[in-house]
Amino acid sequence: MSLKGKTAIITGSNSGIGLGVAWEIARSGANVVLNSFTDRDEDHALAAEIAKETGVEARYIKADMSKGDECRALIEQAGVCDVLVNNAGIQHVAPIDEFPVDKWDAIIAINMNSAFHTTAAALPMMRKAGWGRVVNIASAHGLTASPFKAAYVAAKHGVVGMTKTVALETAEEPITCNAICPGYVLTPLVEAQIPDTMEKYNMGREEVIKKVMLERQPSREFATVEQLGGTVAFLCSDAAKQITGTTISVDGGWTAL
């Protein structure tokens, strides 16, 4: 699954799933562009580390995914985009009648609208190059729902719908568009929640993971960022040339229920 000579842009990739995807794509030989809304020395250091360890070119470009013009500017500044991974996302939990309007707007902007802007900017580059892959990191919540997550569920369902539309618009071209729908993934953010959850339920680590955090994930195991990165790499490979407009669930059986 070599991607040597390709360039991949991964939004929201200075931590968690996005960073894991960046590492796996780089290991497949692609040059990578990392992104987030900050512009710290450690952000650029991540790109330097990936370049050093994998031998590809890697750089970091600051862009706020809540702003459409910055989403498009990210693609333009990168200059080339063979693989686009729309990963940036945020979450807020509240009943819909109490859901803060600013949180709703931010979640829709970052989780869904950003994918529209980046894809619209990237497709002309892919067409010019004669090859392209768009991979949207959706969620199990792009296929099903949970209470108190109205904005997130709406945004991720929207991402799945947009994925199908882009796939149809590019169906006769050497460009594919798919969505990956993860369940619960062991990221640093989730790892940090485990001690508080253990204290809240007076349970040990393994018990709180299996009985509380992974209650809806039948495998009772977290997905890993490496597994998601590997799934992205597969969707970019020749083996996946005829896979477009679909979702791949990496959720331990969640959406099979």
What does this structure look like?
The chain has a 7-stranded parallel beta sheet with strand order 3-2-1-4-5-6-7, sandwiched between helices. The protein contains 8 helices and 7 strands; from the N terminus they run βαβαβαβαβαβαααβ. The chain is globular and about 55 Å long. It has 2 domains: 7-183 and 224-250, 3-Layer(aba) Sandwich (Rossmann fold), CATH 3.40.50.720; 186-222. α1 packs across α8 (225-235) and α6 (188-201) packs across α7 (205-213). The model has no long low-confidence stretch (mean pLDDT 97). It has helices at 16-27, 41-54, 68-78, 101-129, 150-169, 188-201, 205-213, 225-235; strands at 7-10, 31-36, 58-62, 83-86, 132-137, 175-182, 247-250. It starts with 6 loop residues before the first strand and ends in a 7-residue tail after the last strand. α4 links the parallel β4 and β5 (132-137). 47% of the residues lie in helices and 14% in strands. By secondary structure, it is an alpha/beta fold. This is D-beta-hydroxybutyrate dehydrogenase. Belongs to the short-chain dehydrogenases/reductases (SDR) family. It is an enzyme of class 1 (oxidoreductase). One of its GO terms (biological process) is monocarboxylic acid metabolic process. It comes from Falsiruegeria litorea R37.
